[in-house]
Amino acid sequence: MGFDMPYIPHTEQDIQQMLAHLGIDSVDALFSEIPENLRIQNLTGIPEALSEMDVAKLMRERAHSNKHGLCFIGAGAYEHYIPAVVWDIVSRGEILTAYTPYQAEASQGTLQIIYEYQSMICHLMKMDVANASMYDGASALAEAVLMAARANKNATSKTILLPKALHPAYRQAIKSITAPYHLELVEIPFHNQKGDLNVDALQKYAGKGIAAMVIAQPNFFGALEDADALTNWAHQQGAIVIACVNPLAMALLKAPGTWGDKGADVVVGDGQPLGAPLASGGPYFGFMSCKQEYIRQMPGRIVGRTVDVDGKAGFVLTMQAREQHIRRAKATSNICSNQALMATAATIYMSLLGAEGLKRVATTSHVNAKNLREKLIAIKGVKSVFNHPFFHEFVVCFDKPVAPILEKLAKRGIQGGYDLSADYPELGNALLVCATETKSEADLQTYIQTLEKVL
Amino acid sequence: MSELTIYDKSSPKRRATSVAPLNSVAINDIDSKFLRQEKPLLPEVSELDVVRHYTQLSQKNFSVDTHFYPLGSCTMKYNPHIMQNLASLCGFANLHPYSLVEHSQGVLACLYELQEYLKQITGMKAVALSPMAGAHGEFAGVAMIRAYHEARGDSARTEIIVPDAAHGTNPASAMMCNYVVREIPTLPDGDVNLVALKEAVGPQTAGIMLTNPSTLGVFERKISKIAKIVHDAGGLLYYDGANLNAILGKARPGDMGFDVMHTNLHKTFGTPHGGGGPGSGPVAVGKRLLPFLPIPVVGKKGKKYFWLTEKEIPQSIGRLSAFAGNVGIMLRAYIYIRLLGADGLKRVGEFSTLNANYLMKKLQDAGFVVPFPERRASHEFIVTLRKEAKELGITAKDFGKRLLDYGFHAPTTYFPMLISECLLIEPTETESKQKIDAFVEIMAKILDEAKTNVDIVKTAPHTMSVKRLDDVKAARDMNFVWKKDKE
After folding, report:
1. Which of A327, B38, B173, B420 has the least C-beta neighbours within 10 A?
2. What angle do CA B14, B18, B21 make, to 5 degrees?
3. What does the pLDDT average to over B259-268?
4. B164: how many CB neighbours lie within 10 A of its CB?
5. CA angle, corner A215, sides to A211 and A217, nearest 5?
6. Contact A222, A384 (CB under 8 A)
7. What is the Cα–Cα distance from A101 to A113, expressed in whole angstroms?
8. Does B93 contact A277 at a Cβ distance shorter than 8 Å?
9. Contact A311/B at CB under 8 A
10. What is the set of domains in chain A, with CATH numbers?
11. Distance between CA atoms of A348 and B105, rounded to whole angstroms?
C-alpha cells in the first residue's frame, strides 16, 4: 500500500490497525468469498492517475476543442441567460452532495425546495399537483402516455394521438418506452400552410374511444396550436389530454390548466429553459403535473407539507404507495432518482425572474425570432414555410440542401439552426431557426450577413 | 411560520431587476386567444431575498460535504470538487446537443473514452451511456432482454425472476417492460436459494435480475451456477450495478456470466447525488445483446468521433430520452476515472470493503447483532435491532433519528425488507478510520441511552430544524402546493 491514494485518507498505521482488528494480514483476504476464477488482479485499459492540475489541463483542452459561435439552434434545447445566483447556490455542497431526502428531519432544505418547485410548476401550468421531476421532457411525456393509458377506464381502444409536429426524438422515446405495452400510437399530420395540427385529419378518430391525445405548445416548428379547440375535441372523445409545453412560453401563452372548458389533464415538458445550461443535452429535467383526480396514477416523488410533534411546519416525501420502493412490481413507474438538482436550479431561476421577468424573457425571445424571420425571408433563396403565429422558433426553406449551408455558417461562427430535411422530407430543404433573449440586434445582423455570403 | 416559503417573503411588484431584459416589449402579432391573461403566481422577491432564502435552506440539509453519510446502497462517497468545476467550463456548458459533431469533438472524446473504460471495468462488450439513472438503465437492460427474445421469435418468455432481497426498482423495471415478476427466496446464509431457482426457471423465463454483492451486503458465491441454470433455461442475466463499488477492480460482472447491466455513475464513479439526481445509469452488454443497445452511442472512425444511431444499430431498442442523456454527469465520471486511474479504482473496491468490514467488526464488539456473522461484508452490511426492539422498545427508525443529533446521517433503514429492524450501513472508502471509530462510539452511546434514557432516543431528533414529522397528516392533507389563501 502506498500513500498516493486519491481520496482515500488511510495512513499506513490506520491500515495495519484495521487489518489487525480483523485478524487478517491483507485487504485481499476480505475478498475470499469471491471464487478464485472470478477475481482479477488489475484493471487493464485504464490510464494511470493524473493530478488535479493535469486533469484540469486535459479538460480545458477538450472544452476548448468544442467550438461554438452564435447559437440559433433550438429544437428542444434553448440558450437562455442564467443569472449568477442560480448555479452559485445550486453548487453549494449542502445541496449538491445530499441524497434523496429519505431522512426528512435532516433534509428540510431539499424537501422545502421541492415543495416550492411543485408550487411554481403548478401555478405556471395552472394544475393541481406536480411531482418532484422526471428525467427529461421526452421520457416525462412517455410516462404521461403510459399514465393516461392506465388511468382512462372509459377508453375502448389503446389509441394515443400524437402530433407529427411533436419533437421527433420525443416521438421516438415514446415509441421505445411504451413498446412493451403495445399501445397504438397514431401520428396526426400538421397543416401544410400553418404548421399547426391538421384538424381535418383528426375527424376520423371521432367516436373511436381514443385513450389520450398529446398537444404540443408550441409544437416542434415553434407554431402555436389552437389548444382550446383541441382540448375540447379530445375531451368530447373521452380522451385524456396530455399537454407537452415549453415552460418559459407559459409566461406568455395560455396555461394548459385553462385550455378549453376543462383544461388539460396531464402537463409535461422539459424544464431546461428554466436555468439549465445546454451542456450537450443534459442534465436537464422533465416536469410533470396533473389534475388532482389523477394523482394516484402519477409516477415520481411528491413532497407534502405537514407539521412536527411541536406543530412546527415541515416537509416530507408523501403519497409513496405509488412508488417502486414500496409497491415494487405494482408501482406506477420504476423511477427512483430523478433530476432534483435541475429542478432546484429552476426553482431559484423562477424565484429570481418572477412572473414579470419570465414574461420579459419570453416576449424578448419572441420579438427577436420574429425580427430574424422577417430579415431571413427577405434574403433571396430563403422562403417562409408556415404563415401562422409562433413562439421563438420558425421554419424557413432554401432552394438547395441545408447541410452544406449549416457547415459553411458554422465555419464562420454561426450555428444556424436544426436541419429538418431528414425528419420532415416533405418540407424540402427546411431549417428550424430559434432566437432567444440572448441575441442582440447585432447578432441577428451577423446571422443575416453571414447567410447572404454563404448562399 | 408566516415567512416559511419563498412565496411568504413576496411583496407585490418587488423584482430582481437585473436578471431579466430591462425593457418590456409589447406583442402585437399573436392573437389574444393564444395568450395568457393573468400572470402566474410566482414569488415577487429581490435578488438578496432569493440568495438568503435558498442559502438558509441549504443549511438545513445533511450532505457528504458536511456530514458522514453511511446510507447503505447509496454509496455516499466524497465527490471531488474539481469535477463540478471542470464539467461547468463554458466549452462544455454552452454546447448545444445538436451542434455539428465536428464542433463537439472534445466532449465526444470524453464520452467515447468513458464507454471504453466502463467496458474494461465491467468486463462487457459495449456500453451505451444515455440512461439517466439506475432505474432508467434497468429499463433499458430489461427492454434489451425482451428485444433479444422477440428477435428469436421466442414469445413465450413472460417472466423475470427477482430475488426477494432486490431493490424495488428491479421488479418495477420488469413491470415497465410488461413482464410478470417471479420472486425467489434467499437462504439463511444470504445466498440465493438454488433449489427454488431451479424450480422457477423454464421456457417462460426471460431472465433474472441480480445485485452482486447483494443488498444483504454479501457476495453471491454461487453466481456461476446461477448463470448456468438461467442460461440453460434460455434466460438472460441482468446485473444491477448499485453495489459495483464493492468489487471495483476486484471482479467483473461480465466474467460472472451476466449479459447486461447498468452502472450508477452517481454511486460508483463519484458524481454528486444532487438531493435525488441527476444520476446517470449507463448500460453495458455482452455479446448476445450487442445489436439492441439504446441509441445514441458514441462511435469513432480514425480520429473522428460521431454518434451511432438507428442506422448503425438497426435493432436498437431505440431512444430513451430526447438527447444523449446526462452528459454533464458523464463528464464528471470521466474526470473521476482520470483522477483515480486504474490503481485508484481498484483501491475503491479494497478500501470500501476494508472500511465496511472494520466497521461491522467494531459494531459487533460493541454488542450489535449482524444477520450474517459468518460472512465477509461487501462494501456494506446489515445490523439488525430486532433484539433491541423487543427488549428496549426502540426501533431502527429511532436509532437513525438519534444519530442525526450526533451529526451522523442515518444508515438506510428497513431495507432490505427481509431483515427486521435493520440498518444497512455503507461507510465508503473516503471515510477515515477515525471517523468510523467516532461513529462506533456514538452507536454504542445510543445503545446505552436506549437502556438508561429511552425517551431521548424515541423522540429524536432534538437538534434538527424540525422534530419528528407527521407523515399521516402529510398524506391526508395533500398540501403539495403553496396557495395564497391557505396561510
Report:
1. B38
2. 100
3. 98
4. 15
5. 165
6. no
7. 11
8. yes
9. no
10. 70-80+357-454 (3.90.1150.10), 84-349 (3.40.640.10)
11. 32
Q: What is the pLDDT of residues A253-274, one digit of tens each?
A: 999 999 999 999 999 999 999 9
Beta strand segments in A166-228, E: 184-188, 212-217
Q: What is the pLDDT of residue B472?
A: 96
Contact A306 B473 (CB under 8 A): yes
Residue of A44, A67, A99 to mutate for B, most B C-beta atoms under 10 A: A99
Distance from C-alpha of A249 to C-alpha of A255, rounded to nearest angstrom: 9
User: What dotted CATH number matches B83-339?
Assistant: 3.40.640.10
pLDDT in tens, B186-217: 999 999 999 999 999 999 999 999 999 999 99
C-alpha cell at B431: 471515510
* Sequence-ordered list of residues with C-beta below 8 angstroms from that of A241, at least 6 positions apart, any chain: A212, A213, A215, A230, A231, A234, A235, A259, A260, A263, A264, A265, A266
Query: What's chain A's Rg over C-alpha atoms?
Result: 26
Chain-centre distance of CA B238, in angstroms? 17
List phi, psi (to 5°) of B373: -65, -25
Yes or no, beta carbons of A38 and B251 under 8 Å apart: yes
Q: A198: buried, middle or exposed (CB in 10 Å: 19+, 13-18, 0-12)?
A: middle
Average pLDDT over residues A214-224: 98
Nearest to B74 by CA among B260, B270, B333: B270
According to DSSP, residue B268 is labeled T
Q: How far apart are the first and last CA of chain B?
A: 9
pLDDT confidence of B1, banded at 50, 70, 90? very low
At residue B487, the pLDDT reads 45
Q: What is the enclosing helix (H) or strand (E) of B440? A: helix B433-452
User: What residue type is assigned to position A339 of the chain?
Assistant: Q
| pLDDT single digits (tens) B88-116 | 999 999 999 999 999 999 999 999 999 99
pTM, entire model: 0.98
Phi-psi bin for A269: left (phi > 0), alpha (psi -120 to 50), beta?
left
* B72 vs B379: CA distance, rounded Å: 9
Q: Is residue A324 a contact partner of residue A333, using CB atoms and an 8 Å limit?
A: yes
Amino acid at site A298? M
The beta-carbon neighbor of B71 closest among A63, A93, A99 is A99
First to last CA, chain A: 64
Cβ distance A324 to B172 less than 8 Å, yes or no, reads yes
What is the DSSP secondary structure assignment for residue B17, as one 8-state letter?
G
Strands A240-245 and A266-270: parallel
Residue B431 with chain A: CB contacts under 8 Å? 9
Q: Among B226, B173, B177, B221, which Cα is nearest to B200's?
A: B226
- Domain edges within chain B: 7-58, 83-339, 347-472
Using DSSP's 3-state secondary structure scheme, residue B186 falls into: strand
Cell of A210: 381514443
Please give the average per-residue pLDDT across A282-302, as a whole number: 97
**A325-361 pLDDT, tens digit each:** 888 888 999 999 999 999 999 999 999 999 999 999 9
For chain B, say whether A168 makes contact (Cβ under 8 Å).
Answer: no
A57 has a pLDDT exceeding 60: yes
* Torsion angles phi and psi, residue B131, rounded to 5: -55, 140
Is the ipTM, as predicted for this complex, more than 0.95?
yes
Is residue B426 very low, low, confident or very high in pLDDT (cuts 50, 70, 90)?
very high
Output the average pLDDT for chain A: 96
Give residue A68's pLDDT.
76
Domain B347-472 has CATH 3.90.660.20: no
pLDDT exceeds cutoff 90 at A66: no
- pLDDT band of residue B3 (cuts 50, 70, 90) is confident
Say whether B138 and A304 touch across the interface (CB within 8 A).
Answer: no
